[in-house]
Design brief:
Blueprint: E1 2-7, E2 28-32, E3 39-41, H1 47-52, E4 61-65, H2 71-74, E5 89-94, H3 103-110, E6 126-131, E7 135-139, E8 143-149, E9 157-163, E10 166-171, H4 186-192, E11 197-201, H5 206-209, H6 220-230, E12 234-238, H7 246-263, E13 266-269, E14 275-277
Parallel strand pairs: 3-4, 4-5, 5-6, 10-11, 11-12, 12-13
Antiparallel strand pairs: 1-2, 1-14, 2-3, 7-8, 8-9, 9-10
Helix pairs in contact: 6-7
The chain binds zinc ion (2 copies).
C-alpha cells in the first residue's frame, strides 16, 4: 500500500518561495492499494493533482474518505478532472451534520450558482455520498475502513485503513484538550492503535495554541504524545499552518523528532509529492 501526499496544508492554500519545499495545497492524501480502486483522504486543493494522475476518459473509479466539510478539505472537488467525464464513478464517505443533513446535501447546496458556475448534480461523472460516523465498513475487495468521530469544530471523522496487515490512520483536524493537557477520546485511540503510519494534525506551536485553544487543532507535541500513547510506529506531521514557512516546519520537526526518539516514534513532516510505501 502506497501513501502519497497531494496537499499537506491546513486552513487555506498558500503559495510562495517560503513554502515551496513542503507545499501549499490543502488536505489530500492518496492511497494506492494493490488490486483496488484508488482511495483519497479528503478533497482539499491537492485533489486536483491527484486527479491529474487518474484516467479522464470516464473509466475512473475511486473512493474518498472525507473528514469534514471545512473548505480546506472540500475545495478541490469541483476541480477534480475525472468526475468531469461521463462514466466516472466516485464514492464519497463522510459524517452527517448534527441536524441530519448529509455530506451530499451540503456539497450540493454549496457547489452551485452563485458560489460555483454549475450545480454539482450537473457534473458528468457519477458521485455517490455515504454517511459514516462511528462506522466500520469495507471498500472494494478487501480494504477495511474504520471511521470514528473525533473532536474538532463540527462533526468530524478520523479514519483508519487496513489492507493486508498494514494500516494507516488519518486524523487531519483534531482538537486537543482546551487546557493543553494530554488526553484523547476512545475513538481516536481506536483509530491509531498500533498503526504503521499516523497522519496527524500538528497545526500549532505551544505558544500559538495558547491563543487558539478552541480552534479545533492541536500542537505537534500532542500529536507525538498521542502516537506514542496508541502505539503508532511512524508519525507524519500534517495540516501545516499556512503561516508556517519551510524553515519553521524544519524547526518544529527537529524538536518533535527528539521527543519522538524519547517516546519510540519515528517522526517526519508531510510534504507534497512524498510517497511512503507501507
Ligand atoms: Zn482542516
Ligand atoms: Zn477543519
Amino acid at each position: 500500500m502506497k501513501v502519497t501526499f497531494y496537499g499537506v496544508r491546513g486552513s487555506t492554500p498558500c503559495n510562495g518561495s517560503e513554502i515551496e519545499r513542503y507545499g501549499g495545497n490543502t488536505s489530500c492524501v492518496g492511497l494506492d492499494v494493490p488490486g483496488n480502486d484508488p482511495i483519497v483522504f479528503d478533497l482539499g486543493t491537492g485533489l486536483r493533482y491527484f486527479g491529474m494522475k487518474q484516467p479522464s476518459d470516464g473509466s475512473f473509479r475511486g473512493h474518498a474518505l472525507l473528514t469534514h466539510l471545512h473548505w480546506d478539505h472540500t475545495q478541490g472537488l469541483p476541480f477534480f478532472a475525472p468526475i468531469l467525464c461521463a462514466g466516472a464513478e466516485f464514492d464519497v464517505y463522510g459524517p452527517p451534520q448534527e441536524d441530519g443533513r448529509s455530506i451530499g446535501e451540503i456539497l450540493a447546496a454549496t457547489i452551485r450558482p452563485p458560489l460555483f458556475p454549475i450545480e454539482l448534480e450537473r457534473f458528468p461523472g457519477r458521485m455517490r455520498f455515504h454517511d459514516v460516523s462511528d462506522t466500520d465498513f469495507t471498500i472494494g475487495a478487501d480494504v477495511a475502513v474504520k471511521a470514528r468521530l473525533i473532536p474538532h469544530v463540527g462533526p468530524t471523522c478520523g479514519y483508519r485503513v487496513t489492507w493486508n496487515g498494514r494500516s494507516v490512520a488519518y486524523l487531519s483536524d483534531h482538537q486537543m484538550p482546551y487546557d493543553g493537557s494530554m488526553a484523547a477520546s476512545q475513538g481516536a485511540l481506536e483509530l491509531i492503535d498500533g498503526c504503521d503510519l499516523l497522519i496527524h494534525d500538528s497545526q500549532y506551536l505551544v505558544s500559538e495554541f495558547a491563543t487558539k485553544s478552541t480552534w479545533g487543532h492541536c500542537t505537534a507535541e500532542f500529536a507525538v504524545w498521542l502516537a506514542a500513547e496508541a502505539g503508532a510506529k511512524r508519525l507524519a506531521l500534517y495540516h501545516h499552518d499556512p503561516t508556517r514557512g519551510d524553515d519553521a516546519v524544519d524547526d518544529m520537526l527537529r524538536a518533535i523528532t527528539l521527543e519522538g526518539q524519547r517516546l519510540g516514534v519515528e517522526v517526519f513532516a508531510a510534504s507534497e509529492g512524498l510517497t511512503i510505501d507501507l
